[in-house]
Amino acid sequence: MSQPPTRRRLLSLAAGTAAAVPLVHAATPAHAAPATAPAAATPTEAPDWAVHPFALHQVTLGDGVFRRKRDLMLDYARTYPADRILAVFRANAGLDTRGARPPGGWETSDGNLRGHYGGHFLTLVAQAYADTREPALKSKLDHLVGALGECQQALAEHGTPRPSHPGYLAAYPETQFILLESYTTYPTIWAPYYTCHKIMRGLLDAHALAGNQQALQIASRMGDWVHSRLGHLPRAQLERMWSIYIAGEYGGMNEVMADLHTLTGKAEHLSAARCFDNTALLAACAENRDILDGRHANQHIPQFTGYLRMFDQTGEERYATAARNFWGMVVGPRTYSLGGTGQGEMFRARGAVAATVDDKNAETCATYNMLKLSRQLFFREPDPAYMDYYERGLTNHILASRRDTASTGSPEVTYFVGMGPGVLREYGNTGTCCGGTGMESHTKYQDSVYFRSADGSALYVNLYLASTLRWPERGFVVEQTSGFPAEGVRTLTVREGSGPLDLKLRIPSWATAGVIVTVNGVRHPAEAVPGSYLTIGRQWRPGDRVRVSMPYRLRIERTPDDPSVQSVFHGPVLLVARSPEQGFRAFSFYKDFTLRGDLTGAIRPEGRPLYFTTHGLTLAPFFVADDTRYHAYFRRSEPVVVFGRADSGVPNRARGDGLTFLDVLWDQAPFATAGRFVEAVRALADTWLSAGLFTRTERDAVVAAAVRADLRN
């Protein structure tokens, strides 16, 4: 049976049909909501979280690539016309569109997903305002919210057809929601509750980040409508609806309804959140049964962030257990080296990474949602693994997803990010799901740099981004200078504040080249263990300075299904080989190894930071977002057991797990002396002999080559 058309494929058909003629209806004036002071913190935090975030406005980005990419998206937020975002809403409500055309892409005058982009745009502007405090952004946000309020009222009073409840707000009639209840499939209808979620999320962000009270009122009425629509439906009907490919995709409706409940206290809103339990998948993940193969990735990832919010509201452990287990089914077994997941929007078999690389991997929306899930899991259980993944996805996918050129007419972000050989990134995506999440991603880089413990006694430093934290409750202002993602020393300076505080520094799992932490020039005595947090507890004073040195080292990562298909990293940074060739490039490194057992003899610095050369090719940091064809994976070719110039002539055979003799040997490096190296070769050669992978003659030839090699450090 053929796979239904992807949303991306329909985008290519719709791109040329964006409305060219303005939608015009009877004029109705718009009134902006009154400006109010921004909320100090997100009102949807759970009191029993172990760790809490800081508000966006409390963390300011410093100089560097993150701020440069952020600034590109800020220009888009400032410049893109609000009336174009509102055109589809006004047309549906019978209001004057003021001559504005819809944005295009999926956001057209007749598109079945129209309105979703407006929800993302609300979040974009709300985050941009929370970050910059620019009055023009606040005015723009208030204008958007006020206009949506007018649309909601107009639909309730004279909608054609009249909605079933006065809280209804969308950019199309209620028909799609009605058809879903009779199990109509995609593309006849297209994820109506997904669109509803984006609009509601944007409204709640306008309330939480910019203090717009009208936004909460509109969202609350929408929540009332959701309950009126779903609250009476049998569970079996709901489960069938949510199982439908794309048509049943609802984004994070359970999350936004749970968040709404914390703000309104309405029992109906929590009851409506329960309506979005995707019971079969929820039960399987709670039992740690992996049934993800063949499921639409981004249809399901945000559901699990919602389940965590449901756990916060209800205390039902199955929600949290399912979310933890789901994360483990994706991160690692289904994750490409950049941190993304999925092939053509779909989850594939567990461990199928090398087998699925092509030009349409890693839907950017999916990584956006995996980062949200990781962050939410960390709040409840501060496991460093969540932040290790967060750093990977943020640095190598999200940062890489914004083209390094200015545009005020397009977000210039990626949809798929191919991992196959010789692919390139395509940018743009006005009106698509990834265009929407892309707008959001690049205006909230700072949201997970720092967290605080629930009792305020500890400060977590999760990411080493140049930034300044203002923590008024404790009186601290902490400045971090850093060139991340470039290599270098990270320095944290207490600019204001004093008193006791545990500073928890994340030591990334890749930091295996020796970590040195000093406080006011004195080395901290505790061992910095990769994949953990190092705690520095002291009475802090203005001027105190912590320096963190985590040297990068070149390393490879193997795919789980084919260890010969590998990626190369420098510290946390994915390096890609620039080449238009459409097949895997073959790289051989072991012949250049010294006793250190590292890649420095095989991969040479090019002269620019984070750029290298090997096998006649340039290796570039993937976050540099241009139009060059690249290879994120290469094929490791080590056919013969060779040590330096000493060639044994023996085939480098692999054992059952795909690892070759040389793989297993060099995984034991570094070797202190040539003698220790020869001992390791002899022991492993004996193992290969016992397993039938070497003959006695081959075993002796390998050991003899190790002796002849006389390797040095």
Automatic annotation (TrEMBL):
Classification via InterPro entries: 6-hairpin_glycosidase_sf, Beta-AFase-like_GH127_cat, Beta-AFase-like_GH127_middle, TAT_signal
Domain of life: Bacteria
Protein name, as recorded: Uncharacterized protein
Any single biological process term in GO: carbohydrate metabolic process
SUPFAM superfamilies linked to this entry: Six-hairpin glycosidases (SSF48208)
Organism, as annotated: Streptomyces lincolnensis
Pfam family, one: Glyco_hydro127M
